[in-house]
Specification:
10 helices, globular, Rossmann fold
Length: 278
């Protein structure tokens, strides 16, 4: 029986979080779907307990969103996480036994800062809600988005944004922007980057592909989230969003597609690699 070893990186810094619960649920559902493989799932509390997985010990990593400023504050875990990002990226350049990494929201911002990809700055106001996300030309070819419409809908929850990408740097590292914020012609603001294909094995989203309606409703019980949504969209839009939360073609579709497809893709390749080495 083949082993598939998954490490979940909890970036919530001891804050209660729906997202991490959803990531665990998606990982457990994937484990149940693997009848022929022995799947193990281990959790690492990166920011609060300084825990970090050893890259060699796992095949798949999912690094969660979390609160706070993604810029360095001189904490021990920040060095460890930066080293972890480099270890995965470099390992994949020199080894046939690839490691697969998915970066969500805060982790996505940390990686974008670490690899010097553009301007990660504070938004004018906190963004929270179900947002349309637009595919770029490269995003049209992105297999994780294959069954999603354009735009597709995703949960957005962030105080920071990634704007002004350094296209030369992207080219140099072989990275691609695959999704951006919705187009608002009446507002003179740059559209934020919403997803990046960092490499064949590393993918990241600014939005929350793990989010589900129940978690979202739970999050809206938090007054800060509710107010952010009403400020951004107005009361009417807020009520409509709550009403459409469990539409089959919105966040339910996004949740069913992106992370599960990533896990299946990683599994297929991990097994192929194991076979080749056998």
């Amino acid at each position: 029986m083949n082993d598939i070893r998954i490490a979940l990186l909890d970036m919530n810094n001891n804050h209660v979080n729906q997202g991490f619960k959803n990531i665990k649920e998606i990982s457990e559902a994937f484990k149940l779907s693997c009848a022929q493989e022995n799947v193990s799932i281990e959790t690492f509390d990166v920011r609060f307990k300084n825990e970090m997985p050893n890259v060699e010990d796992f095949d798949i990593f999912i690094s969660s969103g979390g609160p706070g400023d993604p810029h360095r504050e001189g904490l021990e875990w920040e060095d460890k996480f930066a080293q972890f990002l480099d270890n995965v990226f470099e390992h994949n350049q020199y080894s046939d036994d690839k490691k697969y990494l998915f970066l969500i929201c805060h982790s996505f911002q940390l990686a974008s800062i670490h690899w010097k990809l553009g301007n990660i700055c504070k938004r004018k106001s906190y963004s929270f809600g179900v947002m349309p996300v637009h595919k770029t030309e490269e995003g049209e070819q992105e297999f994780l988005f294959k069954n999603l419409p354009d735009p597709f809908y995703a949960v957005d929850s962030r105080a920071y944004q990634f704007i002004e990408p350094d296209h030369e740097r992207f080219e140099e590292l072989g990275m691609k922007i695959v999704a951006i914020e919705k187009f608002r012609p009446h507002i003179n603001l740059e559209r934020a980057v919403m997803a990046i294909r960092f490499s064949e094995e590393i993918f990241g989203t600014q939005f929350h592909p793990e989010a589900n309606p129940a978690g979202m409703i739970e999050n809206l019980k938090d007054e800060k989230n509710k107010q952010a949504m009403i400020e951004n969209f107005g009361m009417e839009k807020y009520l409509e969003t709550v009403d459409r939360m469990d539409d089959e073609d919105k966040i339910i579709l996004t949740q069913a597609q992106i992370l599960p497809r990533f896990l299946q893709f990683a599994k297929k390749n991990v097994l192929k690699q194991a076979e080749a080495m056998a």
